[in-house]
Amino acid sequence: ITVAFDDEPERKREFAASLAAAHKLNDLDPAEVVLPGVEEIDPVEVFERNRDTILRLLHERLTQSDDLVAVAKKWFSRSLMLDVNDGHLNLAEAVLDLAEGGPLSTENILEQMGGIGKAPEALQVFSLNYALAHDHRFDEVGPTGQVLWYLTRMEPQEVLQTPLILRYTPIDHDPSFLTDEMISLIEELDDELSPLEFTDQTITEATIALIYPHRRIGTLPLNARMRRIFPTALRTPRVWVTLVDGQDGEELTGWVVREERYVYGLGRLFRKHKLPVGAYVTVNRGDDAGKIVVDFASHRTRTEWVKLITPRNNQLAFDEQKRGIGADYDELLLLGTDDIAGVDALAEATRQQRRPLTSLIRIVITELARFSPQSAVHAKTIYSAINVLRRCPPDPILATLNSSPDFEYVGNLYWKLSDS
């Protein structure tokens, strides 16, 4: 054959092709041939280096097919699937109903309902998964790598709808008013509503300080660090987990509400150990897969001065009284109350009145300044108290403190009402 080269069009070279005679080049294993200038390539390494791009392109191509369908990241031909009818779905609902809603694996459901014909089990599992996923009665709640089903109507209401106390209506604020000191505080608080990212994929433990909304409703924030501990399967908005009390080993049912960024099911643990607002709570992956250990640093109960929320005439007020505390806590976040119903009514009234954030901060500083000789309140304490009235991350609070003439900065993240 005659070959012309792009870099030298006038130059032509001749090569032997389709050589039938015995020659050592005919005996080479093609897998061992390395082209000049090209290093030997490991396909596993290529995939790991380009994993996200390859998977994205593959997913795009698969979804373009009218015949392929996916359940839990597994693909199958629609034309080969079994027919799952209303009778099968009603049986599946009855099985889950007897199991108090679930969760049950697809294999377990199939076994109890007698299967779908005599087809191979893998085909029955995929076909039933697909049918359940398209029926509002069923919710897929398994963590990554597992498919578990639950009856939607038997899930806690706090899981199906975000509790009012956790709902945040975004507040416009200018990030340019956030100083480096403030940004460090935002990162320390790690509020799940703050736009923070935590890239360390290796952590197995995370600690947060409870604020009032989470302590009141029995939840943990699914913040930047917590998202590395709890399962957050992208294919489902809710994930069922087992929560283990690190103090006594009691197991509780937990729910990871991924899109709304909270974990529900901690109310019993908080009440049992009388954890205050501001208590440090640590979570880590247990030895058993699928179990999350929730713990805190306990000690002999000590009497401490605590600022108690004491609503008067549906207005925010605080008293300082002694209370017994048996856990480590952040003293700047520490709050308590003996009138939960009154605080709930106060929060509801605040939501109805739609007061601007500046007004709420002014009320909080006015009430808390009484406990300080300098009439100054730390930004952490302001953040903690504001979240009794309405859910709000620290970012807009700090930006408002620094931008409004109503407030005066006195150093070390302490603020007071301006003299004007």
Layout of SSEs?
Elements: E1 2-5, E2 8-14, H1 43-49, H2 51-63, E3 68-71, E4 74-77, H3 86-98, E5 104-105, H4 106-113, H5 121-133, E6 138-140, E7 148-151, H6 157-160, H7 180-189, E8 205-209, H8 212-217, E9 219-221, E10 238-245, E11 251-257, E12 262-264, H9 267-272, E13 280-285, E14 291-295, E15 298-309, E16 318-327, E17 336-337, H10 340-353, H11 357-368, E18 377-378, H12 379-389, H13 394-403, E19 407-411, E20 414-417
Parallel strand pairs: 10-14, 15-17
Antiparallel strand pairs: 1-2, 3-4, 5-7, 6-7, 8-13, 9-12, 10-11, 11-12, 13-14, 15-16, 18-20, 19-20
Describe the protein's architecture and organization.
With 420 residues, the protein is α+β, with helices and mostly antiparallel strands. It is 30% helix and 24% strand. A seven-stranded mixed sheet has the order 8-13-14-10-11-12-9. Strands 5-7-6 form a three-stranded antiparallel sheet. A three-stranded mixed sheet has the order 16-15-17, with no helix packed on it. α3 packs across α4 and α11 packs across α12. The N and C termini lie far apart (93 Å). The mean pLDDT is 89.
